Amino acid sequence: MDLIIKGKGRAVKMAIVTLLGRGHLLIEDVPGVGKTTLAFTLARATNCSFQRVQFTSDLLPTDIIGVSIYNPENREFEFKPGPVFANIVLADEINRTNPKTQSALLQAMNERRVSVERKTYTLPEPFMVIATQNPIEYQGTFPLPESQLDRFMMHIKLGYPTPEYEKQAVLEQSSFELLEHLEPVITGEEILRMQKEVDNVRVDESLLDYLMAIITETRRNDRVRLGASTRGAQFLLKAAKANAYYEGRDYVVPDDIKEPAPLVLGHRIILKARTYISDAERVVEEILEKIPVPV
Amino acid sequence: MPPLYKAMTAVLAFTGCISLFISGALNPFMFIAGIGLIPGYYRLWKGMPHASKWTIGGLSIAALFFSIFDALVITGDVFIAVAHLTIVFHAIKSFDLKEPWDHLQVYFMSLLQLIIASELTRSIAFGVVFVLFLVALVTAMVLSHFLKEGTLQRVRFKRPVVVISLITLLATTLFFISAPRIKGGLLGRSLTKGIKTVGFSERVDFGSFGNVKLDPTIVMRVELSGRAEWPFYWRGLTLNYFDGKSWQDTLEDKYEIQKKGEQFLLRPFPRDKAIIQRIFLEPIESEVIFGLNNVTAVEIESRTLLVDDAGALFIPRKSSMRMSYTVYSIFEEQVAEGDLLRYLQLSPDAGRISRLAEDITKGIRTDTEKAVGIEDYLKTNYKYSLITSSPPEGVSPIENFLFNSKKGYCEHYATSMVFMLRAVGIPARIVTGFVGGEENKYGGYIIVRQSNAHSWVEAVIDGRWKRFDPTPPVASVEMPSLLAMYLDTLRLKWYRYVIGFSSIDQMRLIEFIYMPFVRMPQMPEVKVHGIEPALYIIIFVAITVLVVFIIKRLGHKRYDFVTANYLKLRGALENRGAMITASSTPSDVAREAMRLGIDGKAAEFIRLYEEARFGGKKMDKEDMEMYRHLLREMTKTSE
Hints:
heterodimer, A: alpha/beta, Rossmann fold, Helicase, Ruva Protein, domain 3, 2 domains, two-stranded antiparallel ribbon, globular, B: alpha+beta, 3 domains, eight-stranded antiparallel sheet, four-stranded antiparallel sheet, 14% strand, elongated
């Protein structure tokens, strides 16, 4: 994957960690730095079904979830699944659509099933939503409310690649062509198995205390207006376990908590000063420097 | 909550309650409340649900009201009522131990109980309970510290517990030795009552000795040095006037003896011939103190010593006071001085007795022979018995003994002899005290019991008071077992060195410590009172600082093998200028090691550490060796 998304090893790792931890990913960055490519690569490499939804202001919930259409042949309503019925769903520029449509997707993310006309349809497993949003384009956007931001396990930024990688990327062929040739390295079933194994990763009692100390501190810090939620703590634990698994361990070490913590918690806390998520991430990093690591 | 933590709380609660129960001052019904602790702690142990807040609150308020009622009506004693209340609170609290804070309350309550108990009892069992309490308290505090820190599962707390317990015991001992002596107890009260003795009050009812002759209660213990004659007659009081029912001392004048230094000197005496008796007297309900015949000097921690002209010694004191003192006696009979007429008072029914005395002494010239004759007569012709019938109407008990029943005990014999001597013109008096005692070979001292209480006769022969004992010898009581002897030795040591540790002892200890340094023919006078309270505060602060320092030092050592070595690496790297803070993760440490030029060993070391510490895998021997080896390698490079 590093071949396709150059110089973004950490972002890729975090994307995989999110997948392993059964979470959803929110990527925030300016257009054209590889958000879509990252999502698509993940889908290709895992041999999963992939759907991309370009969120526009006139998008309706049914455009995502699907719709029941009357079938004249057998005189029944037939459910036509929407793009959400895929293993990996790329919700591009999620903050461009109206809140109604946003919440339709977010509900699906949370419950991993959709209800249409009193019938419940389970979404395929593994299921992961990768949403992107552009921070600069404020016009015509509906920023996600905190409650919905909370449903993403991680919030990452890609940022511009370093000059040398950028030069390479400009010179070489389009990544999409490379993608076409990308052979799947893993199957969906294997991902499911790995996700189960992640659940069994051992967490020492003292590390749980360490994690909770971080969460508590986000609530206590005097620069923070609203601290991390309990779901935030759950996601941080999942991310830590997935991170440990990614590193080939069956137990969590302090780094597994410390590394993803800013990405897991950054978008969940609200600072007193009106600022960006990146500022919040910095506050989380400061908090991490304060909390003693168990020895 | 770890089981050991629960267990310690239970131990503390029970020791607190037991310390109160052994004092024996509580209402026996409180035992039921004490038993209430058992289900409470059983539930805690089994992790059963706690009682509801309302139940606990309601019961506590009820207990409080009951306690007020208890203080005012039932026991009529606030002090005891508080002691009762603590037991009830313990029982209630045992059903409501949720937070560490609740456990802390239990510790506090137990501490309060121990303080109360220390005022109620002086028994050696309390000492044992106290040490147990101290150790349990230290353990509980150490555990709760680790529990708060969340490191309880991983630390080795045996060593901190043992070391802190020892330090605490040591500090307590030091403080005990050096603290100023407070008279009358910390709370200004003492509920221990003196032993009811007979024969040592100003009026001694005839026949009262019979009641104590079978009582094995220990009255005093004596360490004896010097040549003394067996059996020992521990002199108490002398009595001269008998009204047919009770003996009295008609001469109530007592003289105060001036204290010179540590000693009350009654008269000069040759030191090398003195029989020195160090006496530990149990609390008795009398002001008399005892010693062998002809006391010449007394060392005692008291301001006043009173003496009557018959040589009886008195220390004005509370009956609850246990005393230790040293008496110097010389083997020499007292000179009969002053008015001897009052020793010639005759019995109200003198007629028959006088005739008998004259019959016995017929043809005997000297007073000595007369007295011995009477003594022998009584010894041989009468039977010793504690069971006496009351005399018929109009007959005095003496007459009844001499002419009717012909059996009785020391009082009958002694009283008869006194009146027979007086009948033949020899001044005589009754002496009350103790005779004999059993030797404790372990402790090298003599135990004197209530059953040793005795009365005998002193008569003026050739200008000196001579002792006669007309009571026939009685088969001695069964010897106590060796174990009982051994336990009693322990008890004596307890009274001597703990309960009775006095300011004189402090002074001696200071002298003992100074001795090697001050080589002077005469010891300079060490002023104990000169030691300012400030000095005690300094000593106390010094001890506290020492304890804190050692606890801090222990804090670094309390981790298990894995963590301890990891911390060693961190320390070594920090010394080399690595940027390691509390929030550094193990891999940060590895990176810093790498930055400082310590090659790949750090990564392997950290991997082993993380695996053992967070991975829940036990290091095997090989890993441990490797771990240690890597650390050695790295710290070597860092030197």
